[in-house]
Amino acid sequence: MIEKIRNFYIFLEKSLNKSFEYKLKEKEIGNIIIAGMGGSAIPGQVIKDALSLKIPLEISRGYHLPSWVDKRTLVICISYSGNTKETINQFNESLKRKSNIIVITSNGKLEKKAKQLKLPLLTLPKGFLPRESFPFLIATLIKIFKKLKITKEKPLISFSSLSSKNIRTIEKEAKKVAKSIKKTFPIICSEYPSVSFRWESQLSENAKHLSESKTFPELAHNEIESWREINKNHSLIFLEDEKNNKEITKLIKRIKKIIKNNTHLIEIKAKGKTRLERILYLIVFGDFVSYFLAKEKEISPEVTDFIKALKKTKSK
Fold first, then answer.
1. Distance CA 122, CA 124 (A)
2. Which of 58, 65, 90, 91 has the smallest count of CB within 10 Å of its CB?
3. How far apart are CA 180 and CA 147, in angstroms?
4. Per-residue pLDDT tens digits for 25-38
5. Which CATH number is 161-296 given?
6. Alpha-carbon span 185 to 131, nearest angstrom
């Protein structure tokens, strides 16, 4: 797993360079749904957080599509395995509603159905855990949104903050963070839901470590009142993008004054030229933290016994 995190930039660049053909015209799309679960859904949230889009985009995590999905909806079904029950069910619902469909997968029932119905299909490299496929998924979504010409930004950039040299620096810093939060309950805060939730998900799956994710500025209206009870058993992790929103930066400064002597505070500042690059920087940092925390706890980051047990268990 560690080598796959280190090669994030290489995987991203390699996938971005692959060609993608799609004939759907922009005017035929009224809105977009990205249907997926777990690690397959987070890249869609990244796109929503990072890009200014001309039409609505929603992430659908569950068995059913929103009621408003229709023939002018583009439904992007993502399942790394191709066998995710919730995503397959949403795929079938989108067929009934005659929606436009794109399938992203590496294998399984979704790939088979997409081929049978001659639907647009983008295949992912095999041999990865679903959460490890993140760079391929985000690159694939970038290509789709670029092709559709529905974003105001130019997301295809150099991603220089994620170059091999900078990745090594991130890795060293992440190892220190992992050690410092080993015996704590981390509360992960970011203005980007995709970033804080990815951290929480990776800490859960890789390190088997309880944590919770929160977002700015919402936490300032509720969560912060409970922070008076924070003690040495907690750690606050602020994932900051000072280049994006000055109001959020000011809010974080005010929060730090209030909690100054009450808790273990870790601040990680995003690097990169664009919002997308800075979001990816924070996500890669968190991936490293989750890996090293697993090693600190002497457990395997690859094994997910509880998830496998749930998939095998049939409800009565």
1. 7
2. 58
3. 43
4. 555 789 999 999 98
5. 3.40.50.10490
6. 22
